[in-house]
């Protein structure tokens, strides 16, 4: 299916910041902080003595009951308990009744990887998908972008794809390298846009300033978080193609996903708004979660989308929610550090003060992969495809397993692993010379050394 394109795209929307509530909105269920520390030795000693005295007292009471004829009473109590156990007693409870079993999510899991593989995904319910995104757009986007959000129906209305290639880095390169040239050489009619960190800050202020989304971008304290977030923001506002600096365009963008086959049970659109590629498809590997956040994961180093697409809006929403969670975690950490210092536990307080929210291995709440990275993008994509396919199709994450050729689902084309990850040596990916290979990735990012 060919991509609808236009040689030009609209200029950045003008924006006058309104009075906007950017307070911490809603009640967020935060992960429990791993701040429980062992009591001081003296406390443990007192607790042990109290427990021992309690055991001695219980033993004495039992002996006394038997010694003074209480044994028969105890036996009668056991008989009564047994009789009562045979007759269920209904008691008032605040707990809701258990939900009926979901045939699409069996207890044993959707695949041989078991229910733990299903649990790593976070999907919006199809019944509330558009409503949730509309609410987020109204509360967190600037007014100039609220009206552009494609939230009227599913699939999203087809829009011309602006012929614009986006790349970003901390600073402007001194000259073009072969990877950068590959994008212009393969797509000579496309505009090439590069943003360094300072330019990105100015661009976000111009387009998203005064909104919660713009404020969240400014509050992110790691360059990798901002770089991840920025790709969603530029494509939502303008559309086009984003690709990391360590990627090489192997084939013209117009060729991406050509001759894609429609997925059975889902009506294909007459064109395509979004093109993505599979990054990981772990099959039956039981150790998958040591290496990848999702058993089926989508590439995030290269994205193609028309502007204002719901998948991009959902990715932005998820980053905002994760940032709220991380900031709440930091507030709780500060309170715990203050408590530890007040108790004279200075060493423990200092150790806790060195834990950042993204450092999950040391007790942080939010790893990068699930804060802004491919976990976020994968969940946003799958939520859209599930909502798009519901209720006529039982689509879920295993539906993207074992893809060998481009697959069209509504207005989305999904490329096989070879599409955007050729030559990776995993998941049956073929080499860069394969007809299905569209973009090569050199994996030169060094952010993981700072904590995941």
Keywords:
single chain; two-stranded parallel sheet; 452 residues; alpha/beta; 13 strands; globular; 9-stranded mixed sheet; disordered C terminus; 14 helices
Quote the average pLDDT.
Answer: 80
Which spans of ≥5 residues are poorly predicted at pLDDT below 50? 7-104, 446-452
| Strand percentage | 5-15%
Structural class: alpha/beta
Rg (CA only): 28 Å
User: How many helices in DSSP terms?
Assistant: 14
String of helices and strands:
EHHHHHEEHEHHHEEEEEEHHHHEEHE
Overall description:
The chain is an alpha/beta fold and about 450 residues long. The chain is about 40% helix and about 10% strand. The strands form 3 sheets. Strands 3, 4, 5, 7, 8, 9, 10, 11 and 12 form a 9-stranded mixed β-sheet that branches. It has a two-stranded parallel sheet with strand order 1-2. A two-stranded antiparallel sheet has the order 6-13. It is globular and about 70 Å long. The chain starts with a strand and ends in an 11-residue tail after the last strand.
